[in-house]
Amino acid sequence: MASTAPVIPLRPSKDPQSPYDPQALVCSECSIRQFALFGALTEAGLERIHYHIASLHLEPGQRLFAAEESGSAVFTVRRGVLRLERSSRAGERRILRLAGRTDLVGLEAVLGQTYAADAVACTEVEACRIPRVLIDELLPFHPGVARDLMKRWQRALDDSEEWLTELTRGSARHRMLRLLLKLSEYGEPNGLIWLPTRQEMGAMLALTFETASRLVSALRREAMLLPLDARSARVDMAKLLAALNAEQKLNP
């Protein structure tokens, strides 16, 4: 489980010169607040918050929450990339989708359900833990929060369906190219991306380790993919898009 920074209540400060508790001020000034769940809240809305929000930091490989664990909170990703994955009874692991900056994960908790998948950090991750009881308190007073939750639920469903249709069907090369395009959505403007292991690529794309390795080697020879270290690489987007276009013409 992730280590947590000190939890600070989001109660208004008694100091008249400081209308909000420090953590409330952090929330109001957060760079992703307009894209996050509480983006629907005004400053006055923050005054109604009476529970705790915790800042979490995860190292690569650390788990944010586990499948079948009691869902008591949702999480907003502020930085980094998470993977949502499940393991079958036979021990086979499948990566269902990724989550990145501004994404809300663990939505099952809103309904009091257990988490449906393991959430594991691919890179260093910063996230905010939002207790379910806090959401329950806000909903009667802020319909915008309810609408935002519905939009995020739909987006998570769309992402899962896209993963199923785009990354597990078609030729092996097409799947790999689509994966690189997807990873670029969570990467840096300069084309720097998190690079999964060959095993993880296989789990994402329903490919064998050998096939994933062969495809990565081919992309390196084409100078489309430039690994920088074991877990990061740079993608040539122009070559990637041209390759995708050519692949789609061959396999419409």
Mean pLDDT: 81
Taking all Cα atoms into account, the compactness measure Rg is: 20 Å
The amount of helix comes to 25-40%
Globally, the shape reads: elongated
Question: Uncertain runs with pLDDT below 50, 5 residues or more?
Answer: 3-14, 16-20
The total count of strands amounts to 13
DSSP strand content: 15-25%
**Alpha-beta content class:** alpha+beta
Biggest sheet features: 6 strands, antiparallel
Number of helices: 8
CATH fold annotation of the largest domain? Jelly Rolls
Q: End-to-end distance, in Å?
A: 44 Å
**CATH top level of the largest domain?**
Mainly Beta
Full CATH superfamily name of the largest domain: Jelly Rolls
Known CATH architecture of the largest domain: Sandwich
Tally of separate domains: 2
Q: SSE string, helix = H, strand = E?
A: EEHHEEEEEEEEHHHEHHEEH
InterPro entries: cNMP-bd_dom, cNMP-bd_dom_sf, HTH_CRP, RmlC-like_jellyroll, WH-like_DNA-bd_sf, WH_DNA-bd_sf
Protein name: Transcriptional regulator
Keywords: DNA-binding, Transcription, Transcription regulation
Domain Cyclic nucleotide-binding: 37-156
In short:
This is Transcriptional regulator. Helix content is 37%, strand content 23%.
